[in-house]
Amino acid sequence: xxxxxxxxxxxxxxxxxxxxxxxxxxxxxxxxxxxxxxxxxxxxxxxxxxxxxxxxxxxxxxxxxxxxxxxxxxxxxxxxxxxxxxxxxxxxxxxxxxxxxxxxxxxxxxxxxxxxxxxxxxxxxxxxxxxxxxxxxxxxxxxxxxxxxxxxxxxxxxxxxxxxxxxxxxxxxxxxxxxxxxxxxxxxxxxxxxxxxxxxxxxxxxxxxxxxxxxxxxxxxxxxxxxxxxxxxxxxxxxxxxxxxxxxxxxxxxxxxxxxxxxxxxxxxxxxxxxxxxxxxxxxxxxxxxxxxxxxxxxxxxxxxxxxxxxxxxxxxxxxxxxxxxxxxxxxxxxxxxxxxxxxxxxxxxxxxxxxxxxxxxxxxxxxxxxxxxxxxxxxxxxxxxxxxxxxxxxxxxxxxxxxxxxxxxxxxxxxxxxxxxxxxxxxxxxxxxxxxxxxxxxxxxxxxxxxxxxxxxxxxxxxxxxxxxxxxxxxxxxxxxxxxxxxxxxxxxxxxxxxxxxx
Length: 504
Description:
There is one protein chain. This protein is mainly alpha-helical and about 500 residues long. It has a single domain, classed as Up-down Bundle (Sodium/glucose cotransporter), CATH 1.20.1730.10. The protein is about 75% helix and about 0% strand. It is built from 22 helices and four strands. The strands form two sheets. Strands 1-2 form a two-stranded antiparallel ribbon. A two-stranded antiparallel sheet has the order 3-4. A hairpin with a 2-residue loop joins strand 1 (about 310) and strand 2 (about 315). Helix 1 (about 5-25) packs across helix 15 (about 330-365), helix 7 crosses helix 8 and helix 15 packs across helix 17 (about 375-410).
């Protein structure tokens, strides 16, 4: 498929998203619409759209790509099972709390329970983590678009990034959450359809029917799910499941991004219905992602296709686009492009909206201003304009982070930066665990930021030296549990008896 064809499809795709945005925003562009979608979202739309947000372009290309590693194969499904348990815990424990407190930003709980400085610390952790994480996800996909599309037009990488973020800004800055609930539903449809159709196209190319494809994947060297052999390794099943549970609780249940969508439902019953439905779809769709990976490697073996190399290093995450764009017909290529684009931008638009919401609510106090004052049209418009500037600011910040990633030009360094971002969720886990389980205690609020800085540093040092410290034991996804535990212990050390206002 030519670069011009790919570019045309992308233009049409974003044209549709911007059209939807304009139609939705006609009904209102105020802050209540942007932050909470007027608390009138249909649970089934939220559930379906959250799939696109929870997955990303990284999932779309990296999960299938990693299947070829003998130590990984379907290992990721162990983690997904942990994710599913984590989602159920969120639905039964955290969502009722958020709804009972009628929160716009979920970090409002920390404010009431532990104090203002703890609250600002939690919100800052989210802003840093989500900015780095979302920028990294977008970066990996922009690399694909640059390689297969924009290089043909001699467009610099920075301009490609600017265009991508500019388009996301264009369809999110007015309607915010209300817009992306509709657009993410459409993008999830493209994502899910893409996965199913890709399987069909590859099966046809391999002359497999569904049963034969199932047997071929099952009997291949790519489909091992559970790794029981060596508990010292990172792929050990218990590590993956436990890591999946706690990563989900921290990076979903304590993250404004996905929780913001849940809080847009009419009531707790609909929000829980959304989470249960989402969990089922999430597990199933990941099975298909892994199956795509196995089929891609079987196809590559049959047709003598090598894993693409970048700077003399095998890049398994480029195998999917390589086969889709250069070895299959135009229809599978279009399907792949739509799926990749949908997965990426459904994640980024949601993150950008959540970052804007968190900053406006947690640092500028916009929800309190709206509640406490009889705002005239002038003041209301002023707040709306401020929100637009914040939204633009985070778009630009994400642009700068992606440019920094690209300038490093070192996959190991970039991966480490992304991993460091995940470390920051550990303190959030510790903060909420303390708040939920230590009802009779609160904390010395001023010392909380120091605890939240020290904990990830200690975890990094332990992880770096885990093999030497624990007899070749390799810490993997369970690191977040350790991180949260250290934070929890640190908070206990600075705790004091709770007052009537903080005991709930």
